[in-house]
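Handout, section B. The chain below has 470 residues.
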Amino acid sequence: MKRLALTLVLLSTIIYSEAQTRVAILGGVHSSRVNTEDPFPKDNFDGRTGLHAGLLLDVPFSERFSLQPSLQFVHKGWTTDAVNTFAPEEQKVNYLELPLNFVFKAPLGTGNTKFLLGAGPYVSAMISGKEVMGGVENDDLDKGDGPGQYKGFDYGFNALAGFEFGRVFITANYSQGLNDFYRSTGYMGDYRHRVFGGTIGFFLNRGAPRDRDKDGVIDKEDECPDEPGTALTKGCPDRDGDGIADKDDQCPDQAGTAKYNGCPIPDSDGDGVNDEMDKCPDVPGLAKYEGCPIPDSDGDGVNDEEDKCPSVAGLARYDGCPIPDTDNDGINDEEDRCPSLAGTAANNGCPEVSPKLGERVTGSARRVTFTNNTGTTLTAASQRALDEVVGIMNENPDIRLTVNAHTVSGGDEDMNMENTQARADVVKAYLVEKGIAETRITTQGFGSSQPIATGTSTRNRRVDLTLGYQ
């Protein structure tokens, strides 16, 4: 018995620490009977009218569901007109009972009235009682599990239905024992309590204001009572923690400001510098330039960080510098056909060939002949003349040579073209054999297309040698 009371006190202490819990006192009247079997005639059974009273805790789980443990003093028992010697004709047993009901509460209208419907188990401990057997009254009942004894503990289930009016509640109650509380000396029938009754109760406290979502903001002040939130957002969620409730936040997953409806300060140009700090909000830039692009001081389209000549306009392919002029002749390398040799604009940036050198090469060219009119074999005199050209080119390593071969008119012109190209190539081959780089010599056969004399003059069969720097 002490353990049962201690358990309820401990349970009450824990539960009552929850702010929503309410404590009630209750009491009521009921009729108790005992479920048993023959040999008792059913018409002779009479119920026992008794009282019950105690304390109840109401622990809400939600707006509609509560757990209601209680501790009650309860009269139970029965009477019968069948006098016998193997079972009492009257049993009045008193218990300390602990029901544990799960209660559904359905609001009725807009006030505080609710319909109640609940059920649950109970356990009880016998504390006193009286029996009459064979006309003899006994108020010192023998506890135990043997014949003629009463069990110290009983258990079963409860059911209830009724109404709650704010702090007052009224219910109809039913309970059924699931255990034989008594063992007869004369037969093996069941002895189980059954109780019908009514209860009225009064809650001693109102309970703390309701806070369904447990966010610390009471429901009547909570604009989102079913979703945990913060006091700053009036009880509504604020996923990004910016102090603006998600329901009002156009960017609920990004911290922002009220000025922008919960969104971050915009960054119109997407450069990572927000518009309020960006001096160039419509043009992508860098934070170190306050949101503006890297400057281009010389306006050449190459920003100063990549421009090796930031104060002089240039080109990207030269890292922002002007087109170079390697030979410093005033003609840039892209227009200078001789970028490493100083020259003149009239000669495309190349030096002029001295007249003296030109005359020497022209004189050598006049002596270049072949063994016959259509042959491609140089004469000995031609080789000596070309040796002079080799000397000139070795003395002037930057100079280049153009070899053009011509012939007289007549015959098949395609053959003439092939023959003159072959003669020009023979001259080049001789010079290369003497150590002149192929890249310094170009050749061209013109057939009879460029005569220097009329008719079939042999003067037209010739080799022209021209010096140049391009």
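Note. The chain has four helices and twelve strands. Compare this with the example in section A.
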